[in-house]
């Protein structure tokens, strides 16, 4: 998708949210549409790039293609410990002249000559083959091969893996440990990357305790401990997690974050519905934010929202306060937005057959915690909007279409970052 496609899609999303007359100006987006809107909003944002040492690039995304700065291998190399030989055998052993990895350029071989060579050492000019030490015998200054010698055997030719200038990886590739290794092999000390999107988390609510057991109508804040690490595993740079009360001071702090946070994305929790202290909509409206998604046809989590701040320079994801509803918003809106912002392609879609029938909502998609076996997705109990017991034991969420799924039906699977391979996917 080009940036202009993404911008057009954002305009369409704005028009859609604005068009509906019956709901005070908004309507729930279909679940897959909401994900697309979030992905496109991220992709339409002007990318930030920076040049960083290899060791700091892990988890970021290549801003430009990775092009080889050298041929690989950069010289003809012995693939085995043994002998470099020239012409047909037997060969006369060059005395006292082992060729080692990293050593000076060896002298060329004469026809009928052999020299002992180590894996990774430079091949002497005019070598026709390398013979493994276990396939040869040395006697009285002569070398004999125990089996047929094929010209070129066990020689890694210069440029076999790539030529200088070849594209090794496209822009948008995630920097994994393997990419760091490849970049180093190809001659890089630094990479031009798109940094992880910065995310600030604001947890709203007066009823939240930071320690101890719930008491007197107060409950433990389950989202602060969960969201920072979860967003981190999604590839975000979480700059902080703050708790804001429902009082005037909390509302002003929320407004300041909406208008002036240094983060690319503000994630809020709670206050998305229409209760007396649900401040997110009024604050967004005061700040002149544009709602790209205002409610999603998904259970749990339907009051989730996505707003565009500063003409698309920054975004806000409003997660509902019910903890599993917040997870649903994280996967529905935050994840595609962050991937778009980081320049990553949407995650590959895959399905698995579900074990047993799963009940559905009449109109909305359901996200159901599942354990993955090698054959199927097994739904878990305790998956109500306010419960974390199911998701804490889950590998993934299964996407159940409206009206539910039959036993064995293929369902889209959203793997959780820790079961899908950390923050590199
Ligand atoms: N009249 C309506 N009421 C509600 C609707 C609706 O459509 N109409 N939707 C319900 C649904 S569904 C959800 S989800 C919630 C979303 O509410 P909010 O985003 O405004 O969240 P809160 O009201 O602040 O909290 C909801 C629930 O979650 C608990 N909570 C909040 N933060 C945390 C936290 N950090 N850790 C643990 N639990 C948290 C909070 O105590 C509430 O129990 O609205 C429904 N209402
Ligand atoms: O969206 Mo709410 O999660 O159904 O509780």
Task: Give a quick set of tags describing it.
Molybdopterin biosynthesis moeA protein, domain 3, 28 strands, alpha/beta, 3 domains, seven-stranded mixed sheet, 425 residues, Molybdenum Cofactor Biosythetic Enzyme, Chain A, six-stranded mixed sheet, binds ligand LQZAQKY5, 9 helices, disordered C terminus, Beta-clip, binds molybdate ion
Q: Can you walk me through this structure?
A:
The structure is a single chain. By secondary structure, the chain is α/β, with parallel strands linked by helices. It folds into 3 domains: 24-42 and 196-342, Molybdenum Cofactor Biosythetic Enzyme, Chain A, CATH 3.40.980.10; 77-156, Beta Complex (Molybdopterin biosynthesis moeA protein, domain 3), CATH 2.170.190; 351-424, MoeA, C-terminal, domain IV (Beta-clip, Beta Barrel), CATH 2.40.340. The chain contains 9 helices and 28 strands. The longest helix has 20 residues, at 323-342. The chain is elongated and about 95 Å long. The relative contact order is 0.14. The structure holds ligand LQZAQKY5 and molybdate ion. Residues 203, 205, 207-208, 219, 221-223, 269-275, 278, 300, 302-303, 320-323, 325, 385 line the site of ligand LQZAQKY5. Ligand LQZAQKY5 binds at residues 203, 205, 207-208, 219, 221-223, 269-275, 278, 300, 302-303, 320-323, 325, 385.
In short:
With 425 residues, the chain is of the alpha/beta class. The protein folds into 3 domains: 24-42 and 196-342, MoaB/Mog-like domain (Molybdenum Cofactor Biosythetic Enzyme, Chain A, 3-Layer(aba) Sandwich), CATH 3.40.980.10; 77-156, Molybdopterin biosynthesis moea protein, domain 3 (Molybdopterin biosynthesis moeA protein, domain 3); 351-424, Beta-clip (Beta Barrel), CATH 2.40.340.
């Amino acid at each position: 998708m080009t940036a202009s496609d993404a911008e057009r899609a954002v305009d369409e999303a704005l028009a859609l949210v604005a068009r509906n007359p019956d709901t005070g100006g908004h309507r729930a987006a279909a679940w897959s549409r909401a994900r697309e809107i979030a992905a496109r909003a991220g992709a339409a944002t002007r990318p930030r790039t920076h040049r960083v040492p290899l060791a700091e690039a892990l988890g970021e995304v290549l801003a430009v293609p990775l092009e080889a700065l050298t041929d690989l291998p950069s010289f003809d190399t012995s693939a085995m410990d043994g002998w470099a030989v020239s012409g047909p055998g037997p060969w006369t052993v060059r005395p006292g002249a082992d060729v080692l990895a990293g050593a000076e350029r060896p002298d060329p071989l004469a026809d009928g000559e052999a020299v002992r060579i180590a894996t990774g050492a430079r091949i002497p000019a005019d070598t026709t083959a390398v013979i493994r030490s276990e396939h040869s015998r040395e006697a009285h200054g002569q070398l004999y091969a125990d089996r047929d010698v094929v010209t070129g055997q066990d020689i890694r030719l210069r440029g076999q893996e790539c030529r200088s200038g070849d594209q090794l990886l496209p822009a948008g590739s995630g920097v994994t440990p393997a990419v760091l290794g490849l970049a180093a092999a190809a001659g890089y000390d630094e990479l031009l990357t798109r940094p992880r999107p910065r995310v600030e988390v604001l947890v709203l609510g007066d009823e939240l305790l930071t320690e101890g057991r719930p008491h007197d109508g107060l409950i433990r804040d389950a989202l602060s401990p969960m969201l920072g690490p979860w967003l981190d595993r999604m590839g975000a740079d979480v700059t902080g997690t703050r708790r804001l009360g429902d009082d005037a001071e909390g509302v002003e702090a929320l407004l300041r974050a909406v208008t002036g946070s240094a983060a690319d994305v503000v994630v809020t929790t709670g206050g998305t519905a229409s209760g007396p202290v649900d401040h997110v909509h009024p604050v967004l409206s005061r700040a002149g934010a544009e709602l790209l998604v205002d409610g999603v046809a998904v259970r749990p989590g339907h009051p989730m929202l996505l707003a565009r701040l500063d003409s698309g320079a920054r975004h806000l994801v409003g997660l509902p306060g019910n903890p599993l509803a917040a997870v649903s918003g994280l996967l529905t809106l935050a994840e595609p937005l962050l991937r778009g912002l980081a320049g990553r392609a949407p995650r590959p879609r895959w399905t698995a057959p579900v074990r047993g029938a799963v009940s559905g909502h009449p109109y909305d998609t359901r996200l159901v915690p599942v354990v993955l076996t090698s054959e199927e997705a097994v739904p878990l109990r305790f998956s109500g909007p306010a419960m974390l017991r199911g998701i804490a034991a889950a590998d993934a969420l299964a996407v159940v279409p409206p009206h539910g799924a039959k036993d064995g039906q293929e369902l889209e699977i959203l793997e959780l970052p820790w079961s899908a391979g950390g923050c590199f996917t």
